[in-house]
Amino acid sequence: MTKSSSDLVRTLSRTEYFTFGFGTMIGVGWVVVMDDWLARGGPAGAALGFLLGTILLLPVAVTYGRMVREVPDAGGEIAYAEGVFPAPVRFAAAWTMVLAYAIVCPWEAVAVGNLLARVFPALNTLPLYTVAGKAITLPRLAAGLLLTAGIAWVNYRGIRTSAAFQKGMTFALLAIFAVFTALGFARGSAANLPPLFARAGSGGAFLSILLMLQVVPYFMTGFESVGKEAEEARPGFDPRDFGRAIVAAAVIGGLFYVTIVAAVTWVFPWRTLVSEHLGTEAAFARAFSSEAISRWILFAAFLSLIKIFNGNFVASTRLLLGIGRRNLVHPALARVHPMHGTPANAVFLMAVLTGGAALLGDALLVPITEVGSLAVGVGWLSTCLSERARARRAGRPSFDFAGAMAWAGALASAAVILMKTLPSIQGSFTRPEWIAFLLWSALGLLFWLTKKGSGL
């Protein structure tokens, strides 16, 4: 077993980096919140939102590929900003980016109960308490907590296990996805599509796309996670493959979302799906009058859920490791297990945070997507500006290809932040989202103060 100087195990290939990037991005939103997507945008608004979002984020992906090649560090955003931004700014950007990954984990811990209950309705029994009017049941909560424990155990045991797990789940999902979307396009009809946009009247198309664009960053988060595993590349790895894996993950992920929106709305009247709060599997089941296709879709979603949970867990723990190494949080988070080569304390912390947040149940799902969009926008903006600051320090041109990509990525990232924070923009943060974001910021401040108080 070959290790780097940081004691992280070096084993990952280009294919595994792709599956971490793609697998950390694609979860179960395409099943469990399809009704929310279509309520925001309608068929054209949702599909164009993902397509436009992918195009706008390509410069961010290219910039990340360059930065990971130059700075292969688990600290990601905090490493890229080193030497060009002061410590508080570096910490704030990295800590916010941790949120972008960490917030996905309880989302999946909650979603697994939602998903399994569609096959086993008995999971909706034995209510324990309610949050925001939604009941938390014992079987669904237990499923989420057990999955959290399982993902934590896999990550504690080592990156080899995580990578094999990620690769198998990703390619199985893509195979099943190809089959059922092909069946959908063969069976459906264009008569199911109108109206193309959820908002009617003048400006309806623009507003439909805008409301969709506000959550696209959350569902596209993950292609840049490749950088967090950069120290775990196998010996002889070509550094250019980091960028190739990142761009491939972003492009294929975006096309995945566009395709599933098109397939669902082609096969089933989307207004009925929205009004009855149906998921993707229910739309296909009704269209084909078959429970078998529904179960295959739910199986694909289950595979997708496990891999995105695993991918975001890996990314968040490596980022915590990178922050801990710089003594910007308690140095215990920088410790690597001597036998397994994993950031064991960061794994334990993420398991505890995930389990605690999962206690809030389904009330988490839509608000979390809003908070995640802002968090990732901050991280992307930091990386793009860091690349430009490093280029200026090295005397490189301001407007070469790399510069154009970085500036375009910075503009796209800033737009994401503004969409979520400006009250005048419809769909911006409401009180629950601000509360969640401020609680995370307060936790970061606590870690920062702990570091200061330790004298490190």
Q: Which terms would index this structure?
A:
Amino acid/polyamine transporter I, about 450 residues, about 70% helix, mainly alpha, disordered N terminus, globular
Notes on the structure:
The longest helix has 37 residues, at 34-70. Residues 1-5 have low confidence and may be disordered. The protein has a two-stranded antiparallel ribbon. It starts with 13 loop residues before the first helix and ends with a helix. It has a single domain (14-453), classed as Amino acid/polyamine transporter I. It has helices at 14-25, 29-32, 34-70, 77-80, 87-102, 104-117, 138-157, 159-187, 204-213, 216-220, 240-267, 270-275, 280-288, 291-325, 344-358, 365-394, 401-421, 431-453; strands at residues 127-131, 134-137. A hairpin with a 2-residue loop joins strand 1 and strand 2. It is mainly α and 456 residues long. Helix 3 packs antiparallel against helix 11 (240-267) and helix 5 runs antiparallel to helix 16. The protein contains 18 helices and two strands.
